[in-house]
Amino acid sequence: MSTRRRPAAPRSSSGGINEDEKKILGFIRSKQGMGATIYEIAAATSIQQTLVKKATTSLKKSKLIKENKGTKHLLAVEFEPCKELQGGDWYVDGALDVAKIEGLKEICVEILQRAKQKVVPLDVICLCLEKELSREQTKEILDNLVLDNVIMEVKSNVSSEHSAMRIGEVCYKLIGKKSGGGEARDGAFASMPCGGCPHIGLCTPDGVISPTTCVYYQKWLDF
Length: 223
Known about the structure:
223 residues; alpha+beta; Arc Repressor Mutant, subunit A; three-stranded antiparallel β-sheet; two-stranded antiparallel ribbon; elongated; DNA-directed RNA polymerase; RNA_pol_Rpc34-like; nucleus; WH-like_DNA-bd_sf; WH_DNA-bd_sf
């Protein structure tokens, strides 16, 4: 039994592209610097994914769209990928800059190790890294160390350990193997990264940030 195939869409008189390609190109352009994946295009245009793939291949050959390096997002050639699409400050050409992140994490650990007190305020760590990182970036690095069970976030109180700091001030202290105290690290389930991830709201199976591309989630699985 022969299978029926959808007739090829007629070529548009405008720009030499057919109606499917014109519809897809219009949607991609509407997404500007964010672009769109094959799945998103198919859902928005009601065109079958196989036909979307064929159309986008043709549009790429015609140099009307491009694929963002390191992701599956397609953009119109007149737009540059936005910061969110590139993964933010920690990505280079769509790839996570692991070496940079690990280096900054080591610097933060060293700051805590050299501190005279057991806890160090966030403001102090930010001051040490002000030439390299913004306050937000420093907080992200510290959050990753928390997920790694290397440090913990605490709020200062009236105890002797925090007596020199403002009440409620966000501080950090070393724990686990790098604390020098010999404490055991928490189990793998306790350190699952998703719960405390600052990007959890952007994480989707087919998104720029996803479980399949997250190095911290993979690290947790390999624990």
